[in-house]
Amino acid sequence: IAPNDYVLVYAEDQANNFTDSRLANYFEMVTVEELYYIRIDRSSLSLANSDDAIYLSDSTGTTIDSVFFDESWQNPNLYDTDGVALERIDPNGPGNDLSNWSSSTRVNGGTPGEQNSIFQEAGAGPEDTGISFSPNPFSPDDDGFDDNLFINYKLDEPDYLLRVRIFDRYGREVRELADGKQAGFEGSLIWDGLTDGNRKNRVGIYIVLFEAYNSANGKNRTFKETVVLARKF
Q: Labelling 142: which of 59, 68, 84, 115 has CA 20 to 30 A away?
């Protein structure tokens, strides 16, 4: 399997050929020549909607990645998430960070064997100590394009704890993204454009207040930048 290729693991206890499987028929997957797939001889992978886990291990049994997913990670604006897949936004981002997951935007509910419909990358971080945004503006309208804001940061030491809050132009707090999160030298946070109560924010300018503090040595760093939340008219 080449780097950045996709592998599809599916359950099928009737059809021997992938093109005849229930999965291929449902998602109308006609061309599979370049797709790597692994068939599990059973009717279902038996994954629950919540509180289940998936592990990815190498040939020695060492866990490379894992996710303990929950139904609450689905897009809160969807009335019904039955049959809608959870998708990872940034494959290089943390697997167990709920902000790095949301609902597929495809009409049929998923993207098996393809790049996720909500795929976004964090983009380049700041060259020096500070924060940067990608993209800015961003448009959280659930169309699968620039739906999430990545707040990328770089710090001068790894022992900071983070408190990151979003304010509207009137100075009212609308979202707290982190409170006591371990920082490391660099990283990213994701804002989906929603309030703490999972409500959509209005179009406009928002203020990101990024605070890094180290109680052991009393050192603090504070950065404040603006970002634009946009939508199609």
A: 68
